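Hi all, posting the design record for the shared folder.

TITLE: backbone redesign
STEP: 1 of 1
STRUCTURE INPUT:
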């Protein structure tokens, strides 16, 4: 009799343990089909909240070190300043500089946009092994900086190089 009462009371007042086991018998798998390489997204949490990033390597199933769906991203920490024709060439060059960052970001903390940005050669530069050592990370940042500044100078993807206004 006590087991029958326990069973009835279980359904009358759902507990967290019962909910967890009955709703998700196994770990849910995420498939974010729109978070592909080159997709521009906005970081919504943390130090870089509000900054634009481009996805370099999505990891839908996670990894051993990061056991959650995440992406390797490269973004702009400091956007280029406004440039006018009256400025000297040296001042224009200084104001056209970009400060990049590279980061592993949880899918829950990025908001994808409709824009894409093709940065050739960054996939091989920024990998999971890049984050292991500081010198590798700095080298990867320099490469990302060069690629982003070249893209900015070409005049393409103007929206990516402007800070969000809110």
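Okay, here is what came back for every position:
SEQUENCE:
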């Amino acid at each position: 009799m006590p087991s029958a009462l326990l069973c009835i009371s279980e359904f009358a007042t759902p507990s967290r343990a019962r909910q967890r086991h009955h709703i998700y018998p196994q770990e849910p798998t995420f498939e974010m089909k729109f978070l592909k390489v080159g997709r521009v997204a906005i970081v919504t949490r943390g130090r870089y909240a509000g900054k634009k990033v481009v996805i370099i390597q999505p990891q839908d199933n996670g990894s051993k070190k990061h056991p959650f769906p995440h992406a390797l991203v490269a973004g702009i920490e400091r956007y280029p300043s406004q440039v006018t024709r009256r400025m000297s060439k040296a001042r224009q060059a200084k104001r056209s500089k970009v400060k990049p960052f590279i980061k592993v970001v949880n899918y829950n903390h990025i908001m994808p946009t409709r824009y894409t940005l093709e940065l050739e050669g960054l996939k091989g530069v920024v990998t999971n092994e890049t984050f292991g050592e500081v010198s590798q990370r700095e080298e990867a940042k320099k490469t990302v900086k060069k690629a982003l500044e070249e893209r900015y100078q070409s005049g393409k993807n103007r929206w990516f190089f402007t800070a969000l206004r809110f």
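COMMENT: Residues 81 and 95 are 5 Å apart (CA to CA).
Let me know if anyone wants the other runs.
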